[in-house]
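Need tokens for this chain, all 580 residues.
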Amino acid sequence: MSSAEMRAAATPVVYRAMWNDDRPGLHELAARTFRAWARALHPQLGGGDAGANAKAPVPSEPAGTRPSNGFEGEVATDEARVNLRRETAAHGGVSETLLELDQQDPSGSSVVVLRVLTNGTDGWVWVDVEMPHEQAAVANISDVQVLVCTLLDDAEQGGGRPRMATERLGTRPLAVEPTRQAVVPLANALRGASRVMPCVVMAHDYLDGPGPTMERARTTARQLAGLARVYVLPAQTINPFQVAMGPELDVQPGEARLYLPGEHEPHRHRTLAAEFVRSDLDETARWFGRLLQTMLVDREPPELYRRSRQLLGDRRERHEPSPDTDAAERAEALEAEVEAVWDALYQAREERAAARAERDEQSEQLYDVLEELEMAQQRVEQLHQLLEESRDQTVRALMASGTSAAADADPTHTKYPQVTSIRQALSLARINLRKVEIPPEAEHRIADLDSAIESRSWARSVFDGLLALEVYAHKGSDFGDFRDWCARSKHERAWFANAKKLAMNESEEVMRRSELRQHRVLPVSKGVDPSGRTVMQSHLKLANGSMAPRLYFHDDTRGPTGKVHVGYIGPHMPTKRFRS
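Here are the structure tokens for all 580 residues:
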């Protein structure tokens, strides 16, 4: 066995990336990038081209010629050695350039090989990393990923169309728009058996938000550059993607899934749970990178390589599988270990699906309880109506006899029908209330609120709140403000005075941040402000939960209009922690 063959057996390939590149002058462009990268890692190699072939074009030699060997640079100390060398050759219309960075130091050794192949119509770039068996498990290839990203970025900017077969490669994630034209073709490609490139799909993480999700996707895309393409599903794209892929192949919010090329059972397309994805910025690329390298290191070399392998003699053995039996056994054991880990993750996903089903069942039970509570509340209100009828008869009698001064001071003693929707509550308020003004612009997503299961309860809260404001406008002159009236008047229509149900001011952060403050600039009568808008901070907290409806108002009872002006009725407004 030759020395090169012996070194090939001792240093198997642990990383491989190869792709097509159409740039003219590909040999020199890729070689220049490789040299710049190598000298950035090892400045002691010098900044100039050391070898005779550093700037020479690939020779057009007749068939059968041997490759030309170019010495680029070597630096050696007592403990470390770095060797950068280049070889070029041409044969049978095929041109080949090989650059090799051999690095040895006390922490280990590795060889990074860049091979460029062209035949006039087809161009290939091929990057390998070789290192001893005992170092492969803890190998750090981040420097090589920088090289691959630079080569791909240069190709993209130079019109090289980097790709695997017809599928484009890149170093940035692709956001999928929530349209049928974007989602359906992607879903068809991921399910198809003809796809040759692995793809990673990362879904929006509702817990962390779009910023961290995109940061993880960008990191994953660069670390898997040359190996896979990374897609990101924004929040509004997740559901259409799930529908298009089906339950066995979809992704949940915050998850990342690797779709392997070819035909596989659904569970072979590995999924990382959201807690794994968000645990570390590099977590997704680390897991998927290990799995991909097991598969991609064994990729068939391009036909151009088979036609040119005789050019570099026994060096070709380095790129063929090692006959080392121990290495094969170790690789098999490592693959089995990886398989066991993925099976455990798959089982965890099944357990999580069962937990979700149980949660949904409990939600249904909760809805049943809420409905029963709703019916009980209706019965309480019916009894309350009966209780009020006697008082209403007294009020009507006083009005008929001309002694209705008390009723004039407090018109809310009127008998009102039961409200079943927020829309009905607003209509009833506009007809009957004299001191509360509600412009149409104050309504926000009322249809969404009325379609919720809590809509009847919310409707009653809206009307009770408006009645409280009406009574306050009539009787609150002796109190400090609406909160003071609610706390001290002991009026039966008073609203809750505690912080969970009433806020007279927004937080300092909301008012300081313009993007939050602008939502509180709300419509008001021009008798209050000639612009027809003013900042409103006081609001009733009608309910909590998913939409947490709120009612914002401006107190002008001591102003020119003598009224309370409602500027907003709708879901919770945006804050630092709440996104409506």
